[in-house]
Amino acid sequence: MTSGLWELVLKGVWVTVQLLFLSSLVAGAVSFAVGVARTSRRWIVRFLAGLYTEVFRGTSALIMIFWVYFVLPLAFGWQLVPMWAGTLALGLTYGAYGSEIVRGALNAVDPAQREGGIALSFTPWQRMRLILLPQAVPEMIPSFCNLLVELLKGTALVSIMGMGDLTFSGNLVRLALQESAEIYAYVLLIYFAIAFVITRLMRALEKRLKAGVGKDPGTEAAARELKRAQTTGVGAASGGAA
Amino acid sequence: MNWDWGAVRDFMPHFWDGLLVTLQALALGSVISFALGLVWALLMRAPTRWVRWPVGVLTEFIRNTPLLVQLFFLFYVLPEWNITFSALTTGVVAIGLHYSTYTMQVYRAGIEGVPAGQWEAATALNLPLRRTWTAVILPQAIRRVVPALGNYVISMLKDTPMLMAITVLEMLGEARLYSQEHFQFTEPLTVIGVAFILISYPASLLLRALERRLVR
What we know:
The complex is a heterodimer of chains A (242) and B (216).
Chain A: H1 3-37, H2 43-58, H3 61-76, H4 82-108, H5 111-119, H6 124-155, H7 166-177, H8 180-212, H9 220-241
Helix pairs in contact in A: 1-4, 1-6, 1-7, 2-4, 3-4, 4-6, 5-6, 5-9, 6-8, 7-8
Chain B: H1 5-43, H2 49-63, H3 67-80, H4 87-112, H5 116-124, H6 129-159, H7 171-182, H8 186-214
Organism (chain B): Streptomyces olivochromogenes
Membrane topology (chain B): Multi-pass membrane protein
Subcellular location (chain B): Cell membrane
């Protein structure tokens, strides 16, 4: 491959990384908003959040992308820049998957923690911010790591709409060189390398967050020991309150 | 926004054609992924690392790279090696291969979930290795993993639109063709979007019910 073609591939990598970053921000915001809404006390909020999740999880990411590209401009007159259209479609779809992770982790926090917050007369928002989320977020990280890799794989879909990401530039180089095996092997390797970096970064983040709530992610035994201490401590506190 | 029911009516024959292709791809892809996933899972239990290591690297690589690029790879590279399949066959193989790396982990969890006592009992009864697997371990392991496998079938369904990129006329392919011929994008795309929800949501409810019955 000539240097000009490599430049094309590097441009594609840059677009893919940008798209990954932006759509992961959208997906993260959506998953927290919808995931928290699904634990709400009002049934209508829970229902709407559940509806959102089922609709966006039920349909395919590629169809969402087609919808945002073709139907939004025709039906509503919203013509989005390709980058934002891709970000929106991917962010909304993968946000629906993420909201399940957030909901699961929030529900997995020991109920006594919430009761403790009520006993101390924290407002619902304070309980969420100071008690539930700090304990739930470290538990979400491994699932979010998987989701982020899925999102990375999802970014390849925008190439079908003609956006110049890594897959698209791979296709262009294939047309120029007629060396399919070589160029697609490179493209796959680059995606794999990005996924590898994501996995490493998320593992480091998990370690830091777990240390922040006094958990040692290193050894299973330590984690179990800690869990026992926490539950007994909380049990005593709620017993005292009752 | 103007919605044209006439366009929906005109699109429906194409829709049924597309649905048939989608379901074919889904059924064949599932069969490949179930079978190949079991092969990977068993190979990962091989006694020598010279088997485990390459299988581990290969499956990790397939799992962490986009299905779309894998589709392109098979679609454009295999003919260069003088292996020619139809586009649909290529797509089915790619989806089956991609998802086999997921079902492999499901099987692994299922096999590890079989209590150690079952292995010990098989040894105590002097069952040969093959019979231990086929009569003791796998029946128990697979029963547990059916709901998880079903979840991957639903994921696979949602990935079948990618086959459009290699010229397969499944639902999205039909919708795009119709849209380009009649310049009506809203109706076909919305119809197939709703169709996906109508298929995948009841399927996931069904799986949840199945999970309650099978996994105790």
